[in-house]
Every structure is written in structure tokens, then in C-alpha cells.
Amino acid sequence: MSDLIITLQPIVERWGYAAVFTSLLLEDFGVPVPGETMLITATLFAAHGTLRLGPLLLTAWAGAVLGDNIGYGIGRFGGRRLVLRFGRFVFLTPKRLAHVEGFFQRHGGAIVLVARFFEILRQLNGIAAGLARMPWSRFLLFNATGAALWVAFWTLLFFYLGEQAARFSHLFGPATLVVLVLTLAALALRTAIKRRCVSAATSSRCE
């Protein structure tokens, strides 16, 4: 991921919030672009003062919600035949779609809420919801809430870590700094998961 973040830096430098909005919008109806990594890259810029945190949160949320709603419209009004016919252009295979639909049928609105925390589900949950003819108002509620949680989680986490790493930025080059932030994030996530396992008395299943 660190190499990809370094690759995306010039794009964020030039296009700023527009790059985040566009990448998340496209990713969330199946186009294979690195939306999540673009958000993390922009958050590191915000931690250094290049971008502002508030507009970044709002821009990312809007792009994510709009992208999923486009996917919903494709599934709802285009139908399964159209989705599969043109899905190959965005790496949407019948097997991948069936996998997402299976999750959706078992969990309904709950899967829309948490879908964007998981690869593939994040890109295809709107299309699957549309194909299943889930009421749009219900989809919008779960989707907007899930997008807010997802954007807040990644943005606030990497903003904090980026601020901490920025204190030592004079000692490291850009690539080393990115690796440091990602390492800190991995350690923070591992600690949080471990604490949850211990509190639930299920540590033996989480090792």
C-alpha cells in the first residue's frame, strides 16, 4: 500500500478533494480504482495541513454515498442481464456478483451498513441492493450511515497517526514516513482487536 500511496500523492496534490470524491464515487459502483487508498493519502495531506479535515470528511462521504446510489440505480433499473453484460469491463464477474448477492440475501440492510469495510462488498453492495429491489429509502439510510462510519474511521485514524508522524518528518523521507504511519495503524488495529477478543473472552479464537 505504501508504494500506491506514494504514486497517488501527485494526484492528490493537483486535484485535492476532487480526486477523493471522484475515486470513491467510481469505486463504489464497481470501477476498479483505489478509492480507499486515495482517501488515506488525502488524510495524510490533511494531517500536514495541505487539506482541511472537515471538507475532506464531507467530500469523501458524499462521493461514497453517491457512488453506491449509482450502483443501486444500475442494479434496480438495468437488471441482472445488463449488469452481467457490461460488468466484465469493470471486473464484475458472475461469480463475484453471486457471492455478494448471497451475503445480501442473508443479511439485508445490515450488510449495506457494514459492506464498505470489506473489499468487493464495498464496490458491489449498491448493485446487489438494486437487483434485490430493496426499497431505496431503506438502502439510502443504511448506506449513508455506513459511509459516515467508514469515512470517519479511516480519516480520523490516519489523521491522528499522520499528525504524530509529522513531528518526526524532518528525520524521514516521504516514503519512510508513509511506511511509519501504516505500521502505526496496523499496530493500533491489532491492539484494538486483541482488546475486544479479551473482553469477549474469545481470545483463543482471535489469535
List keywords for this structure.
207 residues; mainly alpha; 9 helices; 0% strand; elongated
Characterise this structure.
The chain is mainly α and 207 residues long. The protein has one domain (2-166). 78% of the residues lie in helices and 0% in strands. It has nine helices and no strands. Helix 3 (35-47) packs across helix 8 and helix 5 (94-107) crosses helix 7 (121-131). The two termini are 24 Å apart.
Outline:
The protein is an all-alpha fold and 207 residues long. It has helices spanning 2-15, 17-27, 35-47, 53-87, 94-107, 109-114, 121-131, 136-166, 174-199. The two termini are 24 Å apart.
Number of strands: 0
User: What is the string of helix and strand elements?
Assistant: HHHHHHHHH
Number of helices: 9
Task: Determine the strand fraction and express it as a percent band.
Answer: under 5%
Question: On the 0-100 scale, what is the average pLDDT?
Answer: 77
What does the main sheet amount to?
none
Taken together, the total number of domains comes to 1
Task: Report the uncertain regions.
Answer: 197-207
Structure classification: mainly alpha
**Percent in helix:** over 70%
Shape assignment: elongated
